Structures are given as structure tokens and as C-alpha cells.
Amino acid sequence: MKKNILTLSLSLLGLVTAQAAEFRIWTSLKGTNVEAQFVKMTDKEVVLTTKAPKEIRLKPTDLSLADRQYLVEYADADKDIVLQGKLNVPEKEIKLPNDFLRELEQTMTFGTDSEAIYNLWETEHFIFAAQGRIRVKGIAETAEACWHGMAFQHYEFRENWGKQKYLVVIPESSESYTALKPYQVKRLKDMGEEKYAVHVENTWDQVGSTRILVPKDQVKPLNLMEMGLVFHTRDDKDFRDDFVPFQTHCLASAMYNFQIGGISQVSGKGYFALSTGHAYYKEILLTGKTETNMLSAETDGEISSKSGFKDGRSWARTLSSLVRKNKVTPKLDDMLQLDVTQLDPEKLVLMYSFSAYMQSTPKRIAAYSKLTRRIHTSNQIPDPSEMARIFGFETVEAFQKDWAEFIMSKDFR
What we know:
Blueprint: H1 2-20, E1 23-27, E2 33-41, E3 46-49, E4 55-58, H2 65-74, H3 90-93, E5 102-109, E6 117-122, E7 126-130, H4 137-153, H5 157-161, E8 166-170, H6 174-178, H7 181-190, H8 194-203, E9 209-213, H9 216-219, E10 227-231, H10 245-260, H11 271-287, E11 294-299, E12 302-306, H12 315-324, H13 332-336, H14 345-358, H15 362-378, H16 384-390, H17 396-407
Parallel strand pairs: 7-8, 8-10
Antiparallel strand pairs: 1-2, 2-3, 3-4, 5-6, 6-7, 9-10, 11-12
């Protein structure tokens, strides 16, 4: 029996050593990447070696939080390395090269409509399909910055994404956007998604963005994921800058949803609350305000628009006051039960506050990354008690108390 236990222990040790010694991509705060192998770690530095070979010595704080999480799991590093350094906003720190965006020779079509012909641009992780006077540089910068933010904070995001690219479609006008509807409806019906196709047909013209199936003949040639994102363009001037609030919201949402597995894979309550909170948090963090309205469609034809408190600038201050006065009480289980039909301003801002709380310190971000990985591997949202344990609390009540204290603190803004 002892021999079997020893054999198992040695096997596990060998597995950890092998994984720690593999060549992988290491990332800095500014987005610099290097493919290297872990060699060793001392109190002050991490030693890597490239395939050249060339030795690289770095401070742990020079590496992404995801890399430091990797070192904890596979190189037996002290857990405290994820707490080192100041809390940065990696999306704002990344330095993209001048040639990060290039135009492709081929075009993309969606069906037979002449308005559904798009020129293509690509970056390292995205393909942008655009028309007319649409300028893609700004949204391309936003997309790559949001991607870097996820890769910096969430271990395995880069690995999960792989070498595939995500399609972002930007029609030149509302009419061009509407011209895409028959294509999407037909594709869904051909897939046997009749109910969803009817929903898309009834709501397509009234949303600001939605998912779109990539043309089947373009998936392999362009190495694309099968589902992309399309924007409802009402003014082409909206696509001239980077970090436009609504675009940032949609891109952050798409990448977070990818990391946790997507709405069709994740079961149980809580998906909507976590996804919505994350998107609003990133939108306000990166742009300083929100311009996103949540759409509620209880029945087809009855669409109501709900938003938080105007542009989001007063969200933290208002919620903090309500919590202090006991007019709003943060309750995790109640929040996780919510769907879009139940939203009111207070509930929406609670979702935002929970995401802000989970990403407010390196320690909480590490726990948030662990939670996200748990959802990805299990295809379900953990119950409140398990979620509390992931964040280091023995009870849900203690977790909620810490969340409430964050809301009432100066750190919540």
C-alpha cells in the first residue's frame, strides 16, 4: 500500500515538473510576449529560457497574474506572488505595434445580398469585416486590449482561445445591418434552431449588437471561430475611436463569455448576473461611463429598455448610499437568480458592484480567475457556498459582508 502511494506521489510530481518545464507564452503588463520554458524561481526572480536558447530573468511582478497563477500551480511557487505589485489595468497598459492591423485581399459575403459584402482586416486574435467609411483601427485596438486584459488576469484564457480568430462584423449603416437578418435567420433554421430563429427575426432590428454565425466557407480559410459579433451601426462616426463605451461592453462580454464556456454550455442560474456585471464593470473601468441599455424581451414584440443610473458615473456613489442606509442589501443567491426580465437599476448596479469587488485586488482577481475556470470546466455556476469558499470565506454571510463593506468603501468607484 505504501509503495502504491509513493508511486502515485512520484507520478504526480513528474506531471507537475513536466508541465512546469513546457514551452509556453509568458506575458508582460505591456503585452510583450515570449515563448519560453520555466527553469527556476528564486526569492527575487523567475528564470526562463527560450528555444534559442537564451536565458531571461524577470521579477515576478513583471509577469501577468495568469503567469503567476501558473507558477503557483505548476512550479510550487509561493501563493503570495499573485499578491505582489500594484493593481494595474492591463487593457490600458498594452503597447500594440504599429503594424498590429492589416487589410486582407479577400472579402466576406453573408448570403446573396449585395449589401452583405465586406472588406476584411485582421489582428493577432480577430478578423474585422467592415463596409464603406467604417474605420476599424479604433475598435481593433479595443478588442486586442480587452483580449490582453483577459489573458493577463485569467490563467488558461490564452490556451483556450488557441490560434483561432474571432469575427467582428461592422455594417456601414442600419440598412446594411438589417440586410444581414435573412442570412442569420436562414442559418439558424438550417441548423434546426427554429425557435431561436424566430426570436432573432423579431428582435434583430432593435438590438445594438448580437451574435452572428460565420459563413461556413470562411471558417477554415480564415481560421475563425464559428460564432462572431455584429454591431448595429447607426452612425459610422461611432467607430472612429478606441474604447467607445458600448463597443467595449460588447467585446468584454464576448471574451468573458468565451472564457466561461458560453451561454449554450453553462447551465443553472448565475450566468446572466456574472456576465452582465463583468461587461458593465469593464465598460465603466475602461471608458469612464456606460452607454449600454439592457434589453428585456419577455415576449416577442414587447421589448423594454432598462439601464442603470444614466451614464454610470454615479453608480458607485448611489449604491454605496443605499447600502449604508440598509435600503439595498447585497445577497449573492438573490443576485444569481436574476434574469433580464427582472432588472431594475439597483439590481443592475449590484451586478456591476459584484464584478468590481471580485476584481478589486490581486487576491480577489486570482479567486475570480479560479471561479471562471471552475465554470469553464464544469459547465455550471457554483452555488453560493462554493463561490464563497473559492474567495476564502467559510460562509456565504461572511462573503456577503465583505462585498457590502467594499461597496461602502472608497475603493468602489
